[in-house]
Design goal:
heterodimer, A: about 200 residues, alpha/beta, Rossmann fold, 8 helices, B: about 100 residues, alpha+beta, 3 helices, about 25% strand, disordered C terminus
Amino acid sequence: MSSFDKNVFINCPYDDEYLPLLKSMIFTIKACGFYPRIALERFNSAEVRLQKIKQLIEESCYSIHDLSRIRAVSAGDYFRLNMALELGMDIGSRDYHPDPMFREKKLLVLENERYSVQKGLSDMSFGDCKSHEGSEEKLIKCVRDWFYESGTKKIKPASIIWNDFNVFMSNLYVEKTEQGYKTEEIDQILIPEYIDWIDERFNGK
Amino acid sequence: MQANIKRVHIISRHNEGWAVLKQGASRALKVYPTKEDAVIGSYRFLQLGYDLVIHRKDGSVEQYKNAETTLNSFPLAGNEQRPATKSRQKSGSPKKMSASK
């Protein structure tokens, strides 16, 4: 059972293009001994999404906010504001929640290129963001280094976690293929199913 | 993680190229400037009974080459001669894996 001290709230885009980055992030969180919490972890049409996000924020001491995709891609598109909204909710809970343990919350803000977030969210210039440049390998290093800087010392170096992630993906491919999954189904695996599979690997089930 | 499995991985190395890594090892055997070089350089592991896993830049599997089933169809570099296939000693690896995506 996950606990507040070990939960990591993930605030990121949920599109197909971002999925490989999300997979590497979830793997790294597990490899560092933490538990990923994400709105995609369960689906219930009756559940109000913002309430679910509020609950996840309140259950997580750590949070990762990837703002690398908030920028509109083409002329006429809008900014994607959901990620910025959820970041604001998380900062608000850290500063204003009546429970003092919320002051211990630790946040990581990710961006695509260095200082790009500050161009759209100038109030963010108070804190450092880490940039992954759209690379899964760099994202793993960002997340792993942040856990280390936040006080988790006994974790593997980023290069080893990257190796482990590649091996893990091949194990997933082999096992799911043997179970009859099509390649497309493996690539587009549901996030709850992916987390379950990682749990089985790390817990040795 | 499953260090007893005979697999060799070709994985991306940021700003370096493509690394050849034996499953269970912590350090790469060699880093090549291009993916194609890494694939050709790893051909010998198929002959030794290792499955070859070629990864995409994002870490997912692009091609899974089973040593038993794909050695004879693997592209040869230059004037390289195709050796006789050695039967694999290892069990437990997938036998009917698709050679490519």
